[in-house]
Amino acid sequence: MNNYSNKEKVKGGRAKPGFSAQKKEVGNREAYQALDFSADKKNLRKVGNSIFSGAVGFSVLFISVLILLMLFSLFMTSFPAIKASGFSILTGMEWHPESGKFGGWPFIVGTLMTSALALLISLPFSLAISLALGEYYKTGIISTIISSSIQLLAGIPSIIYGTWGLFVIVPIVQKIQMGMADKGIIPFGLSIITASVVLAIMIIPYSASLARDVILQVPQDLKEAGYSLGGTRFAVIRRVILPYSMTGIFAGEVLAFGRALGETMAVAMVVGNLRKVPANIFSPGATIASVIASEYNEASPLHAAALTELGLILFLITIIFSFAGRYIINKRSIK
Amino acid sequence: MENQLLNDTENKTADSRAVVKIENLKVFYDNVEAVKGVNMVFEDKKVHSIIGPSGCGKSTVLRSLNLLHSLTPNARIEGSIKLDDENILDQDPMTIRRRIGMVFQRPNPFPHMSIADNVLAGYKMNNIQLSKTESYDIVEYALKKAALWKEVKGKLNKRGTFLSGGQQQRLCIARAIAMGPEVLLLDEPTSALDPITTVNIEELIMELRESMSIVIVTHNMQQAARISDKVAFMYLGELIEYDTADVIFSNPTDKRTDEYINGVFG
Prior knowledge:
The complex is a heterodimer. Chain A is 75% helix and 1% strand. Chain A has helices at 2-12, 19-34, 39-77, 79-85, 105-136, 141-155, 158-179, 192-216, 220-228, 233-244, 246-262, 265-270, 288-295, 301-332, and strands spanning 95-96, 101-102. Mean pLDDT of chain A is 86; it is low at 1-23. Chain B is of the alpha/beta class. Chain B has 12 helices and 10 strands. In chain B, helix 6 packs across helix 8 and helix 8 (165-177) runs parallel beside helix 9 (195-208). Mean pLDDT of chain B is 87; it is low at 1-16.
């Protein structure tokens, strides 16, 4: 019987293996069938499978559509402002809603300035923390203490950071500003640098935890190769660990930068909310997020549309930076 | 070699009969004794193989020669390892590692560095400043010695990870000998490579033997027979027998050596 079916298949041009292989296959199939899969169970498995892949597909689609819808609704809401003044919000220097002037440049500059400064200030700290956790204290009590404080840092509400900034950072900045009074700087305490310092502390957890993960992944044999050539621990960190994990560290910085761009409450409390392009880092200024937060409630319809347009710009800035970051990561990554 | 630095290293390896003396070496991981009082002597311009079943402590002996045990927090070491009559266990690991180079089981060139930078990695690690011509000379010298120069001379600035496995391992050997070591340690250097590449590496080892002392850990008995002047057989942390390759492979004194070599266990 077996012989017959085998011939059939050869004629059909399908079963290439010889008789014994065919028999073995049958044997496997029999063994498989013997494994208590009743027809019901098989069907159930099939249904479960398709439900699961359906759910996965739907979620993916849902998120993508949601982002597009968000962009679309932001665009629609800001349409009155776009119609009134075109895209001059991107370049206009003057923000004066009372007389219908909606120039968003001061806020764009303020946003980029605070975020970039915050990144610069946080970099040495997050690098040190990630090296401590990824290289020096991988396990043990010190590691636990550091990493749980970092987690705690990430969990503190933004308003607390703002308040703390007002009571602690603002007086310090005021003192510094007083020393620079001859340069025409008024000691408000509220300034771009104040916001940057607060922001820097807020974003440390994001960059540090990602950097720690990549530092932990540096292969042991590369580190050993470094030591075997006579390198000190510092040399191995500098010549092997940091270059090897550079792209990952960079990814963490991009993530942190994204967080800094959109941070609202803490920044609004300490940045000064002055609607002018900041002359230097010690002058007060405003960011896109802070101006939206502080003006939206009392805005006229056109004003509100202009604020939404600013929100759209912030959205686009965030997207551009995240894509640029991704591009660089792909291009520079090792392997 | 018009380069002063290279002349120095060449002379150094030629003049001093680099002799490593291991005396009563014991290595503990926590309280487990992985190496139980081993005595061995490695001579200049000879190839010494350490063979034995997995877990017999042969890699541990090799790694302690490079002082890599100090990277393992729970490792403890007793006894002495003398290089030129000075105990290296008392000395600065950084200095010793420059004199005793190491090549690892898996080819591990630095993936973020070019081929040339990989060869010069030891100098970079130690912050030794080199002029352009010096660097080029060292790269050429080391790659020629590692029999890799012809294959890579046109792409010295490309990353080392694009090379084949055997080429990568030769790059690692070049990286180790660029520092002009007196002793070269190889930890199963061909176990991740195909047979033809293995033969190439073995030929390379035979050439390097002319200018330094070589210690190689291997699982491959034929390899040990092919390249070694002396062979050490280790079992359960003990040195069972240490003699010339001829004696070990044709007329071993210990029964365990005989059994291991003839595949009774291991």
